[in-house]
Write a structure and sequence with these properties.
The complex is a heterodimer.
Chain A: H1 23-33, H2 35-59, H3 94-130, H4 132-147, H5 150-165, H6 169-200, H7 203-210, H8 215-226, H9 228-252, H10 263-272, H11 279-306
Chain B: H1 16-23, H2 25-57, H3 73-82, H4 89-101, H5 116-151, H6 156-170, H7 173-191, H8 210-236, H9 239-246, H10 251-288, H11 294-303, H12 307-335
Helix pairs in contact in B: 2-12, 5-6, 5-8, 5-10, 5-12, 6-8, 7-8, 7-10, 8-10, 9-10, 10-11, 10-12, 11-12
Classes of the chains: A mainly alpha, B mainly alpha.
């Protein structure tokens, strides 16, 4: 009795997904679908372009130099005397000062994260990976640091080191980067530690360890890439926080000194003549607000995009 | 369970009455509270050390004048002796610590003959009134917004509330303050011809409080609303809520008796950070609205390098925040029976 043999006269057709999607392109797909995050990204790109183009526009004579004073046109309202956004108490063009202020805000926001990243990573990775006494010590240190009210701390640090900068804008910027980074690394360190602690228990780490992977490779090749998503999200949320702190500092009058324009300073000086000309408060205030809003939209979008557990 | 040789199990060296005590929840709670209180000591000590060190890193002395006539060397020496600045730094630090324990923060450099304690005492009523009024607004408004948004999830009400919360949480409070002054003081005055507006200068403890209190409360309200919405959505999915609906309870009772009670628990945790925010926020809001409270005193002391005042206010703020966090942590243990004590 012959069994019915399956006839193989044509190759089997495998069901293959049309396209392999990696983590990053997948995340990008999800980020793109988030309308608010896209709006945020557009605003940020626009700000970067404006900040970079400002000196060029001055060279071309399209906008006024930020520190050029026109005594006859002080406190112009919106659109008066050829000032699209009005002018301030010294007759300086608000639009131009806003564009140059964007340079300060953006560089503070982004460069501070570059300082925070190595500090937070190092402390978080070491505490999370080695655990035990090292972890305990580092985390108690972090806790104490966390208890410090950050705005007060930044204010004190900046007011102390202000006197060393002797009015040099670059030194002032560096000092502010340092001061803000000094209070903001804590969040990242805690997050990285938490990530490492949870990933450390996964099977693939056990496998890597049992096949003799040295700790340095384990950290760099396995723990770090797998916690990259939350790290990126935390750093993105750190940007508005840093911009906010810088704006508060210059609003109060410490930090970056005139004539370099910053948004916080513009709010402050416009505030003194608020009855004569509200526009010199409104525009810098809106600039700060919308920049922070844009970055937090991006942060929300990235969090939804990079967290696989949130997948819909 | 494998017992590693040579390593005593935890608590083995302690007397039996002690382990019996820690075994109960009440005992564990007592130990938690004591540990939490003791933990404040290194925190405050560290704050003092860092601030003190920073103050002494500053170049120059508090007697330097920007332009104008400098004080003669003899006067500077006498002033240094008067304020104890001629002593070695460890001595100054020890003395300062000793005085802080006795609530003595020394003399202000900026106001002749006034102690920091006096200055703080003068500013305290303003800061406290501001903070207390803001605090009274935050919880009811924030929770109400959050619950309403959650109950009407994905409707216009929800989007409007969360849109407001997102904007309020992103805009810094000095920006909100300045914008509110523009709208409610300047523009409203112009539009109504001076008939109706909210005052924002020459501060007094009356309707001058409206704008600063709203400015201060807006961001915590936004956070509370977001958190309440999230926790209410979580509660809504629970089985006991379905039961409550199924047994035909009216909406009012379901919301008040079942939803609110459970979604309020996470909100309690935000009260600590909220309090901290109110304290540091007062620094900004008092500057914006020119309120003679501690926050503005802190800013003016930073501007004029009044070290004892800066140190005093920083220490005071940190202690207040630490105590608030302590109270919240302890309260949380009582409110939420699921909390594990470490």
């Amino acid at each position: 009795m012959a069994l019915a043999q399956p006839v193989i006269d044509q190759p089997m057709e495998w069901e293959v997904a049309e396209k392999q999607v990696g983590l990053w392109s997948d995340a990008w797909q999800r980020f793109r679908r988030n309308r608010l995050a896209l709006v945020g990204a557009v605003i940020v790109v626009f700000l970067v372009v404006v900040a970079l183009a400002a000196p060029l526009l001055v060279q071309l004579g399209i906008i006024q130099p930020p520190n050029k004073q026109h005594v006859e046109f002080i406190e112009s309202g919106i659109g008066q005397n050829g000032y699209l956004f009005g002018s301030d108490e010294l007759g300086r063009d608000t639009l131009s000062r806003l564009m140059f202020g964007a340079q300060v805000s953006l560089s503070v926001g982004i460069l501070v994260q570059l300082i925070i990243l190595p500090i937070g990573l190092a402390i978080g990775l070491i505490a999370g990976y080695f655990g035990g006494r090292v972890d305990n010590m580092l985390m108690r240190f972090t806790d104490i640091w966390y208890a410090f009210p950050d705005l007060l701390f930044v204010l004190v640090v900046v007011s102390v080191f202000q006197q060393y900068t002797s009015g040099n804008v670059l030194f002032e910027l560096l000092m502010i980067f340092g001061a803000i980074a000094l209070v903001n690394w804590v969040n990242l360190a805690r997050l990285v530690r938490g990530q490492v602690l949870s990933i450390k228990e996964k099977e693939f780490i056990e496998a890597a360890r049992s096949s003799g992977t040295p700790p340095s490779k384990l950290i760099l090749k396995h723990l770090l890439p797998n916690s990259l998503g939350p790290i990126i999200v935390t750093l993105t949320f750190g940007i508005p926080q840093a911009i906010f702190l810088e704006a508060v500092l210059s609003f109060i009058g410490v930090g970056i000194q005139p004539p370099q324009s910053t948004w916080g300073q513009m709010v402050n000086s416009g505030y003194e003549n608020i009855n004569a000309n509200p526009s010199s408060v409104v525009f810098p205030a809106l600039a700060i607000g919308f920049t922070l809003l844009a970055f937090s939209f991006i942060g929300d979008g990235l969090r939804d995009a990079l967290d696989p557990r949130m997948r819909r | 369970m494998a017992v590693i040789a040579g390593r005593p199990t935890r608590g083995a060296l302690l007397p039996p009455w002690f382990t019996a005590f820690t075994g109960t929840r009440g005992g564990a709670l007592a130990i938690f509270v004591v540990r939490r209180i003791l933990w404040m000591i290194p925190v405050v000590f560290f704050v003092i050390v860092i601030t003190f060190a920073l103050m002494h890193l500053a170049p120059g002395s508090p007697w330097d004048k920007n332009g104008g006539r400098q004080l003669s060397q003899t006067v500077v020496n006498n002033l240094n002796v008067k304020y104890g600045l001629d002593k070695p730094i460890y001595y100054q630090f020890g003395l300062y610590l000793w005085n802080v324990v006795h609530f003595d923060f020394g003399f202000s450099y900026q106001y002749e003959g006034k102690t920091v304690t006096t200055l703080i005492g003068e500013g305290w009523p303003y800061t406290a009134t501001l903070g207390a009024l803001a605090f009274l607004l935050i919880v009811p408004i924030g929770v109400a917004l959050g619950v309403v948004a959650a109950l009407r999830q994905n409707t216009k009400v929800d989007y409007a509330t969360m849109g407001f919360a997102t904007v309020a949480a992103s805009f810094p409070n000095f920006v909100i303050g300045a914008m509110m002054v523009v709208v409610f003081s300047v523009l409203l005055y112009q539009w109504t011809g001076g008939q109706f507006y909210l005052p924002s200068s020459n501060f007094g403890l009356d309707d001058h409080l409206v704008l600063p209190v709203i400015t201060l409360a807006l961001l915590p309200i936004a956070y509370t609303a977001r958190l309440t919405r999230a926790s209410t959505l979580e509660t809504l999915r629970q089985d006991f809520i379905r039961t409550a609906w199924a047994k035909g309870l009216p909406e009012r009772l379901v919301v008040i008796k079942h939803i609110l009670k459970n979604s309020l628990i996470p909100v309690v945790t935000t009260l600590g950070p909220t309090f901290a925010f109110l304290v540091t926020g007062s620094v900004i809001v008092e500057t914006v609205f020119n309120i003679p409270g501690i926050g503005r005193a802190f800013v003016t002391s930073v501007e004029s390098y009044d070290y004892p005042m800066i140190l005093g206010t920083t220490v005071l703020f940190s202690v207040v925040i630490a105590i608030a966090n302590l109270i919240v942590d302890i309260a949380y243990v009582f409110i939420d029976p699921r909390v594990r004590l470490m």
